[in-house]
Amino acid sequence: MERQDELLLYEGQIPRWRSGHCNGLRWTGVPILQVRINFNVSFVNNDDELTIMWGVRNRSIFSRLVVDEPGSVQRFTWHEQIAKWDVFWSAPTDQCDNYGRCGAYGKCDPYDAYNFECTCLPGYQPKSISDWYLRDGSGGCIQKNLTGMCNNGEGFVKVENVKVPDPSTARVDNNLDLKACMEQCLRNCSCTAYASSVVTNEPRRSQLDWSTRHNIICGIARGILYLHQDSRLRIIHRDLKASNVLLDASMNPKISDFGMARIFGVDQIEANTNRVVGTYGYMSPEYAMQGLFSVKSDVYSFGVLLLEVITRRKNSHFYDESNSSNLVGYVWDLWREGRALELVDTLMGDSYPEDQVLRCIQIGLLCVQESAMDRPSMSDVVFMLSNDTTLPSPKQPAFIMKESYYSGDPLTSEGSHSINEVTITMLGPR
């Protein structure tokens, strides 16, 4: 049974962009919908019909969807304060959004464009080395070893952050769970990969429920507190990030990778360095810009981690076409507007205590405040996570870049200028 529950944008008969299939929550190729949930998207896919409906949750929001002349799909929402239509999301957004950018068995990473955004999946190599040298990955990849693979002890390699291949080339069986799908794929030599088509099943929800996430957050906080206060030596980690937090079978977190850690003396408060190491997106501003680091640098990194756990989004890979430059900025904007619950990962559904989630978001914002002096210590963070005391209001976080809207009359501004009157007519499809 072929599955066609995705949006495609064509230029004539040539596909230019696809949304990725529906996984039960959203289109997999439109990552902004993972955190911006002002819209309800519903799908019907059966023998009688294939329907996609998109509705606004808040009826006070005005929205429209258009395809402009250059060939971009754009969703606009009306911004009342500036009397302007804002772009909620658009596609394609980058080179990797273009249909078949890296060809068959290719993987596109827009964040590695300096080297070349196209790479091959494990076990594959470029079909044309010369084309890839010229940064043309459209020819795709081929298997490195074409013989002796099937039914010869082969297995699977997990590949993350990719769209499932075009549904016209995939087969869907809703009667199989993920394990049975894997076993069936192993028995079929023409099957090269398998994936779950939906993520809304109850086992996945229960594995990532709020109680589990809250325990992970508290466990990370206690681990950092131990490094800062309870260990024999005071340790500043300097590279706290999601990939350096390991989870055991019971989802208990363990902080790892101390290769960049520094040991502080008993009375030492901060230190500086001319060689800044770490991961952008998790670095505190004083460390990234001045080389100054202290226990408050780890507090900043923890705040970013906390917000990522709640939203299931990476700070450094977050994009918002309207105002915010990263996840922290977007959280700050929604917090000020009283819409912070829109940030919650939709995998949790509605089964979470709103007051506790809002409290954790507020703690995260307190940790990422621009001034290190304003951030709480890790002992304060652990106390705030485990008690219901009143929390202070967070100040503006660091690293927030905004679009500025100029509302003045350019003809009244100072300076010399010339005025040319011209009328331009441009045809646009409707």
UniProtKB/TrEMBL annotation:
Domain EGF-like: 92-130
Every Apple domain range: 150-240
Record GO terms (molecular function): ATP binding; protein serine/threonine kinase activity
Pfam families per UniProt: DUF3403, PK_Tyr_Ser-Thr, S_locus_glycop
InterPro entries (UniProt xref): EGF, Kinase-like_dom_sf, Pan_app, Prot_kinase_dom, S-locus_recpt_kinase_C, S_locus_glycoprot_dom, Ser-Thr/Tyr_kinase_cat_dom, Ser/Thr_kinase_AS
SMART domains: S_TKc
Gene Ontology process terms (BP): recognition of pollen
PROSITE patterns in the cross-refs: EGF_3, PAN, PROTEIN_KINASE_DOM, PROTEIN_KINASE_ST
Keywords assigned: ATP-binding, Disulfide bond, EGF-like domain, Glycoprotein, Kinase, Nucleotide-binding, Serine/threonine-protein kinase, Signal, Transferase
Protein kinase domain mapped to chain residues: 59-399
This protein's GO CC annotations: plasma membrane
Top class in the EC scheme: transferase
Reaction catalysis annotation: L-threonyl-[protein] + ATP = O-phospho-L-threonyl-[protein] + ADP + H(+); L-seryl-[protein] + ATP = O-phospho-L-seryl-[protein] + ADP + H(+)
E.C. numbers: 2.7.11.1
Keyword Oxidoreductase: no
Protein's name in the database: non-specific serine/threonine protein kinase
